[in-house]
Amino acid sequence: MTKKRKRQDDFQKVKLKVGKKKPKLENATVTNFKTKTIHLPEQLKEDGTLPTNNRKLNIKDLLSQMHHYNAGVKQSALLGLKDLLSQYPFIIDAHLSNILSEVTAVFTDKDANVRLAAVQLLQFLAPKIRAEQISPFFPLALADGSSRLRESEGLQEQKENPHATSNSIFINWKEHANDQQHIQVYENGGSQPNVSSQFRLRYLVGGLGSVDEGLSSTENLKGFIEIIIPLLIECWIEAVPPQLAASIGNGIEREPLQVMQQVLNIISLLWKLSKQHDETHKLESWLRKNYLIDFKHHFMSHFPYALKEITKHKRKETNKRYRSKVLSRWLAGLPLQLAHLGSRNPELSTQLIDIIHTAAARANKELLKSLQASALRIYDPQEGTVVVLPAESQQRLVQLVYFLPSLPADLLSRLSRCCIMGRLSSSLAAMLIGILHMRSSFSGWKYSVKDWLMSDVDYFSFLFSTLTGFSKEELTWLQSLRGVPHVIQTQLSPVFLYLTDLDQFLHHWDVTETVCHSLLVIPARSQSFDILQSAISKHLVGLTVIPDSTAGCVLGVICKLLDHTCILSETLLPFLASCCYSLLYFLLTLEKGEAEHLRKRDKLWGVCVSILALLPRVLRLMLQSLRVNRAGPEELPVVGQLLRLLLQHAPLRTHMLTNAILVQQIIKNITTLKSGGIQEQWLTDLHYCFNVYITGHPQGPSALSTVY
């Protein structure tokens, strides 16, 4: 075999036939496998040294993730950091330096979502950090931000292509009226305006005679005049008609005349300001020397001027319509801006509230529509504008409720929470309840049915929620409390009392009086009472733990609303009896050192005695529940003292005579339980009161004998 044939054997060419597939190579890659992803929403290993969020990541883990190359990881880290700081606010003070340095680093990130998350985190941190805490980090943050802005590729592209973006200051009013151009509004988040120019504008409010710091010196004023006067003259030259006759009585249209008036007003203000600083008349001489010739040439050469009216009716109507649309759209943006601003600038918020109140009083449709859309954010009981501003601004916001086009159930729920959480004073809460009553169908105004924009069911739900003083979630949480100092437990009543703070108790009591007044003025007393007792039976009856203010307020409302036309539900009577005994047990076991709860005694004792005197069946049910054989030895003296006080109270004496046999049996059971030892003083006093007021009473039953 030749050498050529051997070389061909080493490199043989495969001859392919028509209709047959090409054979697979020995080193061919198999691509028919399948893959599945594993998603880990949280870490299984917990770090007990530092607090963690719902993903079990602590502050160090989240800050380290901000250096990740993936934009999604950085955005998730920012959102997780916001969640962690909202749950554990004390972390802010401990790690403020690291938080600010890392957040400012991603503030100029290439990804828009990361920048947005960084801005949201800074907005969340701003109200929680004091000025003296954040002031040391300003130079570092500004230097870092400025250097990163210079290195940003997006800004460099905008710089190279100046036509890519338009000037945000230039606004074409026709395009804006037709929604073809948007106006960018920047809010001032601080108490003082941040001005980059050396000249500072004066505030809208303040003394007229005060001079700003930027123009206080003659040199600054002179430099400002050198800049502004040529610009004003150029504005007038652009607005003046191309040809003005030299004769007297030149006619000018309205728009150029308005420009000239504004220019002359500014020049007049500068002239008056120069006189305040010009004691030696040097500045006046300088003004005459540099600008008198130009002033005569451009303004006085064609003096006097006359208004030239041009009859363009359609254009005038269009202009008015455009101006009205611009004003309406500007007003429509104020409620949302107020909701975002909050308490960061109280003075600006006050001005916005005044403008909104004026426009709402004039029934501006666009503003009322926007106010209705932003009402849930403004009247949020946690972070809404109504709860973070001073009392005067809160009053104006409460008055704005009267102008809302509608009052849905979710808004009424938030208003109720504002009343009962103590974020509004009792007087403002009373004003709010009165405004809602005026908007309801029970106010007495003679409107048609379509004008009522709040249903009767929602109105009664608002009154009952305000009456209870606690939300459904809070009442559910209270049911899990047992064996804590704030819960008073007794073995003779199924109702346990949760002791509220004194301020919360007094605020709830004052608000309840306003709710009672609103219920009393409803014409159909029996129907409103039926609605109230059905709500109590549905939401309160069956609960084990009830706040002391809620129990007292419910008893007080029943006493004030009940009359001869009302029929009390059978399911409500045992609940009222249990509440009465629990409240009386709490009052009788108070110690002298508990000064905070001692101030509740008069109010709670008054409503308990009133309900027992008004409803004898409640008194009988309470006496029937006193099965002393189930009570502990520490509760027997309390029961004896309670019976003695009920016997001594004059309004209840007749009802106690009616239940004399039941009272005698209770005292006999107590005596039997205490027969093994020495008779104590409280038991002797109880026997004495029973013999005086029951056995020895001339109208008492003769069959009763002394117990001992």
TrEMBL record:
One of its GO terms (cellular component) is MLL1 complex. The gene is TEX10. PROSITE patterns: HEAT_REPEAT. Residues 326-694 form the TEX10-like TPR repeats domain. This is Testis expressed 10. HEAT repeats lie at residues 99-137.
